[in-house]
Amino acid sequence: MSKLLIFLTLIPLLPILTTSFSLENPSSRRVLVLLDDLALKSSHSVFFNSLQSRGFDLDFKLADDPKIGLHRYGQYLYDGLILFCPTTERFGGSIDLAAILEFVDSGHDLIIAADSNASDLIREIATESGVDFDEDPAALVIDHSSYAVSNTEGDHTLIASDEYIKSDVILGSKKIEAPVLFQGIGHSLNPSNSLVLKVLSASPSAYSSNPKSKLSNPPSLTGSAISLVSIVQARNNARILISGSLSMFSNRFFRSEVQKAGSPTKHEKSGNEQFLTELSKWVFHERGHLKAMNVRHHKAGEADEPTIYRVNDDLEYSVEIYEWSGASWEPYVADDVQVQFYMMSPYVLKNLSTDKKGSYFTAFKVPDVYGVFQFKVEYQRLGYTSLSLSKQIPVRPFKHNEYERFIPAAYPYYGAAFSMMTGFFIFTAVHLYSK
Amino acid sequence: MAASETSNGTALRYAFGNVLSFFILLLIGVLAFSIRLFSVIKYESVIHEFDPYFNYRVTQYLTKNGIYDFWNWFDDRTWYPLGRVIGGTVYPGLTLTAGTLYWILNSLNIPLSVETVCVFTAPIFSAFASWATYLLTKEVKGAGAGLTAAVLLAMVPSYISRSVAGSYDNEAVAIFALIFTFFLYIKTLNTGSLFYATLNAIAYFYMVCSWGGYTFIINLIPMHVLLCIVTGRYSSRLYIAYAPLVVLGTLLASLVPVVGFNAVLTSEHFGSFLVFIIIHVVALVYYIKGILSPKMFKVAVTLVVSIGLVVCCAVIAVLVALVASSPTKGWSGRSLSLLDPTYASKYIPIIASVSEHQPPTWPSYFMDINVLAFLVPAGIIACFSPLSDASSFVVLYIVTSVYFSGVMVRLMLVLAPAACIMSGIALSASFDVFTRSIKFQLPGVKGNSQVDAGDTSSEGVVAQNEVAKTYKNEEALKERPSKKNRKKEKEHVEKPSVKAQIKKRLLVLPFEASIIAILLLVLLGAFYVVHSVWAAAEAYSAPSIVLTSYSHDGLHVFDDFREAYSWLSHNTEVDDKVASWWDYGYQTTAMANRTVIVDNNTWNNTHIATVGTAMSSPEKAAWEIFDSLDVKYVLVVFGGLVGYPSDDINKFLWMVRIGGGVFPHIKEPDYLRDGQYRIDSQATPTMLNCLMYKLSYYRFVETDGKAFDRVRRTEIGKKHFKLTHFEEVFTTHHWMVRIYKLKPQKNRIRGKAKKSRSKASSTTSTKRSETQRKNPWH
């Protein structure tokens, strides 16, 4: 009886359960958090609570727990993974480097927090994602000009940075007033790597070295080439957040007041909470996730999609683009979505106009070239998932009976031909019968 | 003995001859058809080689969608992404012929499949071609020569090579059309009938529909007309044979979409127009000569010559200007390589790369026309004794076709009918001489033969004066003259020709010599038959998509091509694009039904060069090129395991040349070590790193541990390597076809990775910058 009750109560929940499995729903709902030490659960509780309050189901495990695993029976158990275990050399259970990379490559999201003395494993995961931590394991980012003023420390490794990426999609539309506190290892990005973005970078005066030892060689990482927090959006739109500092997620940093060296203003609260909350929204696809659907095209004045166009046909093209808001698909509004009519190079390139309800449309004339064309929408904007739609459609030349039958310019020739025929006929008749 | 002098007896004899030659022709048709069935018996009823697959696919489309859709067919599955307008770029004759056959058979409730009809089209038309040869040779030298020529053509190896069952190509019907057009031309020339002239134009139209080789006709006939005019053989018959052909023929030819305005714009056709003008001038001269007194005529000649010169100069100036204004001087590459055999290899690698466009070797003459090569000179001599309009035509035909066959192997096919006609004439003439010699020396036949001689006489209109007599005479012994001749003979039956008798006496040979000569000729013929049957059974019947080889442990069948194509059709998406060298394009579209980038219709050199460049590039650059063309799969043909010599590695230098011709960063010397093409350890790094090498030899070392290539007879240079941008998805049983899939771009881009695999990551990360340079499409 009780089983039946449970079953009955589960039935209304079914839609919710199924939506969490749906591909249409990009939001990660179940997140595995791997920790070095379960104490982190309370020392970083503000960050975790903000995730939980947004509906995430966090599963805290020690990184070396022998029972952990990312998937079972070919199905992933989690939609996201948070690695707050900078010193772990080996994960427990079935998780290893390859498993994590495969997790990402199958479209799941990842947050990595490293720290000074980060393990090779964490470094290797970061490298595979396109981020290179400072090779010196004991190195910290040091900045003697934009450090956070504090009472206790004097080695200037606690940095207050406000050099954010300028993107409302990634960091939210609300401006982050207070600088972000950071204490940890710096990393560099390959400038030609287009998938990885520097979200928080160090100031030009920063450098990366071991504060305890004397600086003998020039530091390998200096200035604003140092990235403190980076994000990666893989080609399959899986998102990764990589931070060089675990402590920036901690309650202590979230709550501490901050004053940047040389700045008169003293902020009541550091920008960490806002910064990281907004960033986690982005990483878990609550913002900046687009989808395109209902790509349609047809001849002007018709409704059905043809299998082939003719050169110089007038056609109409439409596509619907929506953005995931964390709870539902909202119409995406922009004026820079373009469609290409493409055969080795774009023959037509048009901006799509939108009705602000998610639908984008345009009309154009097929060029006077036949071949196999594609309708292409390549929409890649900072912070948004990349939209890459292509739909193949052949364009044929005129049929033999689609040309004009009589051309006015040719009437003299018609006249000539027919008068010639008549003349020849009369001549023959006269010639044959005139005797 | 047909010695009876009564008209009744003669008629009976003629009727008997008629029936006999009818049955002989029927048997020749059966012979021509059945000798081409070896491929079906030894292999199976299947379409052969490359081009026939395209024709087959087009025929399928035609039978399914009807003629208008075929005419307007835009094929989006070849030449991706350019597509190809099939209706406007194909010679429709063959397809329409087979389609018509199919419709007729189906309307008679004979439910043959399209494939069966296509397979047997060529044998059927070779029977027609031998009958057409009979008609043509009969017009030239009488029925005896006609039958001999027909039987020779029915089994000439050169023609068999292009018309075995399954070889469903344009030439299959075009040779019939060619011979038939020539027959109608000669027929018109002999009769001066406008009816035959019209038929001639229609036959020419069929030829234009069928094959690009129609330009041979439209140049040969004007040459002959010019020859006749120059040698003073102008007659109204010549005018009737030529003028309607040019006017009607050109009008009809321009109706064929693939020819269109070429019929009046390209240089190949200019000769005919020039001769058209000349024949009118000559006709005018003859007319004026007829109505004027000799004195007045001399005055007129000066007038006409001066005016004619002016007109000619003007026309020539216009022609020269027209020709000079076009980039290739109005000649297409293939035609230019006919005139200058070195043209193609110098300037157009894509034409030179086709083996059938190469000049033939001497043995191939012996292989393809065998003893005919020795009989042809005799035939030419026979044609000169005496020379008529018709025999001068066949002499001109053999001379020009010998030249053309020396330029391109493929045109051996045009030579074959000419050689058969000539040999038929030669054999028939020599049999005539020998049998007559024997007959004259046999006791008791002298008188009769003289009476026979009296039967024949001049055929005024046909202008076959003395020649015809002697030959008619001999025909009376074996064959019978044509219907028309018989009528004439009845009229002139009482006019014995003294001259003929004298001539005949002079040609008598010793009895023993004649017997031996006849025996030798029969031996020669037997040798020809044996060789032809061998060629049909062994050399020319392989369908080339199924290969066989005999070894000590029996027969091996290599059906790898069809294995690969069916893998493609079952395991890939319908819209996937498959890249391969162009040789396999037609087969891929027809058998696997997948979109290809280039195919055997080599109309776009740049596109082929792009594929050639990709095959000669290192893996990553090749990936870029293929990706920009939306290619999903790459197919290579590899013969190194089983020793199949015409694989992609052997064709590779042509890919380099064709690619380098358009994209100069591909240089042929980079692939050669000291001018030698090699794939062993001495090969250049460029060669060992190019895509073709890698795709051919990937995992090859796993087969025998040494990676010994049985075609190149060497161990390969680089044995152990990995593919980074391609993955092997299918390799056929004998490794003859290997299919690779393009790997998708990496999901993530690695960092600098100080520890390991630094190479791989740095190459991936610099991808963007290199895209600009190496990819020819950007």
Overview of the structural elements:
The complex is a heterodimer of chains A (435) and B (778). Chain A has nine helices and 25 strands. By secondary structure, chain A is of the alpha+beta class. Chain A has a seven-stranded mixed β-sheet with strand order 2-1-5-6-15-14-12, with helices on both faces. In chain A, strands 16, 18, 19, 22 and 23 form a five-stranded antiparallel β-sheet that branches. A five-stranded mixed β-sheet of chain A has the order 17-25-24-20-21, with no helix packed on it. In chain A, a hairpin with a 5-residue loop joins strand 14 (227-233) and strand 15 (239-243). The chains are: A alpha+beta (435), B mainly alpha (778).
Rg of chain B from C-alpha positions? Answer: 31 Å
Question: Ends of chain B: how far apart?
Answer: 85 Å
Helix segment tally of chain B: 37
Q: Fill in the CATH topology of the largest domain in chain A.
A: Rossmann fold
How helical, in percent, are the residues of chain B? 55-70%
User: Whole-Å distance between the termini of chain A?
Assistant: 122 Å
Please give the largest β-sheet of chain B: 5 strands, mixed
CATH uppermost class of the largest domain in chain A:
Alpha Beta
- Oligomeric state of the chains present here: heterodimer
Strand tally of chain A is: 25
In order across it, which strands form the biggest sheet of chain A? Answer: 2-1-5-6-15-14-12
- Shape, per Cα inertia axes of chain B: globular
